[in-house]
Amino acid sequence: MDKYKISRSKLNYNFKAEQLDFDTTEELSAIDEEIIGQNRAADSLDFGMRVDKNGYNIFMVGESGTGKSTYAENMTEEKAAEMEQPKDILYVFNFSEPEEPRVMRVPAGMGNDLKNDMDKIIEELQEEIPRAFEGEEYEKERKEILNEYQPKSNKLMQEFESSAKERGFLLQNTSQGLVPVPIDEDGEPISREDFQEMDEDKKEEIRNESQKIQNEISQVMREIRSIKEKAQDELSALEKKIGISIVQPIICHLKNQYEDCEEIADYLEEVQDDIVDNIDRFRNENDNNQQNPFLAMQQNDDGSFFVRYQINIFVNNSKTDGAPVIYEKNPTYYNLFGKIEGKSQFGTITTNFTMIRSGSLHRANGGFLIVHAKDLLTNPFCWDTLKRALINQEITVENIGEQYRSVPIITLKPEAVELDLKIIMIGSPYIYYLLYNYDDEFSELFKIKADFDTEMTRNKENIAKFADFISSVIKRDQLKEFSSGAVAAMIDFSSRLTGDREKLSTKFNEIIEILYESDVWADSYGEEVVSASSVKKAIDEKEMRSNLLEEKIQEQIDRDHLLLDVSGQEVGQINGLSVYQAGNYSFGRPARITARSYLGKEGVINIEREAKMSGRIHSKGVMILTGYLGGKYAQKTPLSLTASIAFEQSYGGVDGDSATCAEVVALLSSLSGMPIRQDIAITGSMNQKGVIQPIGGVNEKIEGFFKVCQAKGLTGEQGVIIPQRNLDNLMLEEEVIAAVENKEFNLYSIEEIDQALEIMLGEEAEKVHSAVQEKLKEYAEFDSEDIAEDDQEKNEDENK
Question: Where is this region: Disordered (predicted)?
């Protein structure tokens, strides 16, 4: 058996402080913007940023705490600094379609200038235009126009009145307009009584004449209206001329300031035309406010007529150096895609184009948007809206649910903003593959996958970078400097996280937590520089805060409520090893596995599976066990047996195939009648040919059995059997290593199941197999006799 023992030298994995070329981290340089051990992901991210084509957005895949978010920020800011500063995005009033505000792009910083200039000129025009219409020149020209047209209309009316009077009628103003009234010889209107006394011919004559005059009245009124319209046209032309004389110089001066921006020049032309067309608004605004203060208050609340000349700076890039980098940590619909705000006023909600607000997608335009996939997907409407925006390369601001209203309402429909940005989405592998497999558009929109690993090779280069990373955190967060011994302890802790002595963990969040806690313990010990003992104390205390379940299970074992033997021998009973997961803390404990065999043809019965407590991997392991039995013992005769295997006192379900070796040994012990050592536990997966395969959680399993043996008393005979292929995963606690070194505890490694039989049963494997073969032969003979008796009884029945 000693040939299978693992020597003390193979258990040594501790990194020596002497291998480091510094005494404290104060001597090291910071690497704030460099990522460690993620060359594949870094190259993918760099390539994705260099591809300026649609669909080449980036999905950063990896477990939480591997530095994805920090690296994304650092890389995008570095890349953005080399890119052009994007233009400001403005929303301005659409003079032809007021409900559809239009987008205007201007050089960065020019939006603020234009907004201020527009506010100034409108304020100036509100003063200058009324003043111009109060001048003598305007009044003189106005009177000339009125004097030209007023006599014409008066003369026309006088001539018509004279003509009507000669024909015996007087024109009288009523609520229905001018009406011809018959008069007598004295020029007085004929009364109704007098009219009734006239003969019928006379009355008919008056009626006919009245109708003719009524028709002529319509013609005359049309002519007078035409004269008034001509006069009004000339007055409007006069007002327009004066308006242009005031507005044009001001607008021209402003156009000269922005002559390099054609979009602004075109907009100012539209502003000038609109002001001239609405010159009365500038003339009458003050009068209206004085006559109706309540109306003025209402206009000021909801935005008066002059709001149309304001500028809505939708995206302000004046303070952006290079391209923008937006890290949206709360990707709700409105935070991402903007919204149209409204004001509650007099019981109604009002809005205008100045209340259109941008989202992070707009602010990141021309640069980068970083967002977490889980947060995005859990917010309603966000994922579908984002896809639509990326596919169409534009985004329209609309409030959530507008398309679902049962009754459409009149609202603003802002012009869409063209999109030119790169999205970096961060998520877990589960989310990535979920989207890749079930969303047809995902692979077309996120063509770059940056895969972050949770571990890196433990070599000299990465160890040096790891130490520099520790130095960076210390300087960034103002911690105490770490000694070389403390850094060596952190390196061992990092390897322990990976479960592989040849690897270092890239789960930097967990590493940073130990750095913080080590700093606190060092402070309580009065250390100027954090020592290795402070690091170990931090690790131990972190485990202590999470190991309540472990202590409770150990208590149950100590009180013999959970039945376990760590000495003696038993047939068909073996100590397997399990790993318990309690949040972010895992620990190992032995579990009693029993096997019973008897006559029958049902094969191996997995009690856990029958009770629906077995996971798929464990069920597969039992099937592999059956395959091994068939291949080993049923080459010449059928396998005739029934056997049951169970994890005793297991109430929470079983999964994994690391108990396959234990189950095989227990079953062969039951068949051969050879007892199993109870002072040795075993873990290992196995294939159908009996080859031992590596398993996970090997350190936790060994330490778990060691603690049970330690509590019951170490004998020097106790130990654990593990797969040979797990030797690189051994990173045991110092207490276990010391016990092995002092020959108080033993570790064995095996490559085949026959080696486990030799250790556990204390007999040569061939002897075990022979005994099993004999028992199976005995079962087969009993089975044959039963078949013969059944056939004889059947024949006798047939003869009768």
Answer: 780-800
